[in-house]
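Researcher: Quick one. two chains, 607 residues in total.
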Amino acid sequence: MTTNNDISISISVQGLTKTWPDGTQAVRGIDFDVAPGEVFGLLGPNGAGKSTTIGMLTTTVVPTAGRATVHGHDVQRDPVAARSVSAVVFQDAVVDKALSGRRNLETHARLWGVPVARRDQRIDGHATSFGLSDILDRPVSTYSGGQRRRLEIARSILSEPQVLFLDEPTVGLDPRIRHELLDLIAGLRNRLQMTVMLTTHYLDEAERLCDRVGIIHSGSIVALDTPRALLAAVGDEVVEMRVGTNGAAALAALQTDGVAGDDAFAIGTTITVPVRGRPAGDVAAAAAGLGLDLLATSTRRPTLDDVYLRLTGATLASV
Amino acid sequence: MSTPATISIRSSAPTRAGRAPTTGSVAALATLIRRRLSLSARTPREIMVPLLTPVLFALVIAPALADIGPKVPGLDYMSFAALGTAGLLIPLNCMFAGIGVMIDRESGARRDLLAAPIARPLIVAANLTVALMITALQIGVLLGAAVARGADLHTSLGGAAWFAAAAILLAIGMYGVAETLANKIPTLEEFTGSLPAVAIVPFFFAGSLFPVTALPRFLTDFAKVLPLTHTLAVMRYGLLGRSSNGLHDIWGMDDPTTMAALSLGVVAVFAGLLTAVALRTFNRAAVS
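Model:
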């Protein structure tokens, strides 16, 4: 419902559910709120329900149950208003390749109602900012993957949306272009105080860009907090051990002898032991003294992958 | 595990909820038409290929048939066939417009258009408008070429209006078929495979190159229910000096104007139905 009240929640999701006609539950009653100006990440593997969630928020997927608002507009009751305050960068290329970059930008600006007086100025300004000025009048079919992605991001902010949805914006790009785009997206939040909702299965993207991260697994949000808080849940450091035999049995031995706590977990033959308040080297040395069939031991800083592993028993890359 | 909660990371001031300025329906339609025209202009295939076969019929095959075939009293075969080839051009052109819809969906900007703050049926309306514009251009070329080759068209303002109404309604209906198939059929290969069945087969049964009464009886009856048969009969009524032979073959009545109105009504129902089906199919494909 459109209101003119001041709002303190930019995206509100309550019990949002999507069940496909074949019975597949893509999203299972998720809840979260995103504050204005916040960069919120939905982190999960392929098929976790990230894109379906974005689809429901951008009104291309109809929720089976629940409610969602985008900048105060109910996505089901007033979808046009919800779309008027938002824009999307899609997972794959969504551009008219036969047309020039400029024509693509013009079409978007006109449809989103960018005032005529500001349209050209804004297009040229964004083209300069995104390094597209020299190629803007060329057909998009001649652009490289990175140039096309930059064009799509430039297009998405032409209308200065209140809410920007980025659906796996760097997937499929080579590492150099990916890092270039991460810089660019990070720059957006500094330049424009817009709310950004980002889906990704890349940990570094979530850690680097997001104020808060929701970890989604099989359609449910299994954790939601700041990256720092999520990482703190798996300790200051992590000792990772690879054993030659049964990982579960080795983990049980480590826990029985007090080397590992209840938060340690084993996936296959790899055991991950979160370490708090003591040197990781002590844990590694203690484990070595137990006579386990240790093939390799390493210590490192925890990542969101460890958080995900601990919560779901699967790695982000493997699902 | 952390529980979902709202944490405002930045101490940002509450912002106003309100609808952002959006473009009106007419302006949005104009933008979408402009976009589709730009795409068509950069894809000459969309304009030239549908024109090729009908022009070939009008300029080469029809004169050849007129030379070797038996003469039918009162029938200028060159003119008869020239108008008949419009019955090939319109369906072909609309089906080619459907290819554009598929390309939009598979590798174009359709999803960005669906995310736009506009009424989504405007996307279909814009594509239809451009299909009509290109069809009008092509029919102009076809008729011009036929007249240059010797076709003898007799018309008046009223006759031209009958012709235009029939052509426009057929194009609307055929675009509805194309839009529906483009949203139903998963691959471009399958869509292209459906093109002859949809655009070419009816041409041979609809009295395009010979009167429907020349067909075996059961095929004549079949031809009478084809919207294309009605369209061609009205077109000829409009541009061939109010020739009502085709209309009479369908309705068997004496009043040409009544028969033309009835046939136009059939084509209008076809156009309305197929447009409704196309919009429904588009909406179901656009939103899952």
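Residues 1-16 of chain B have pLDDT under 50 and may be disordered.
Researcher: Thanks, that's what I needed.
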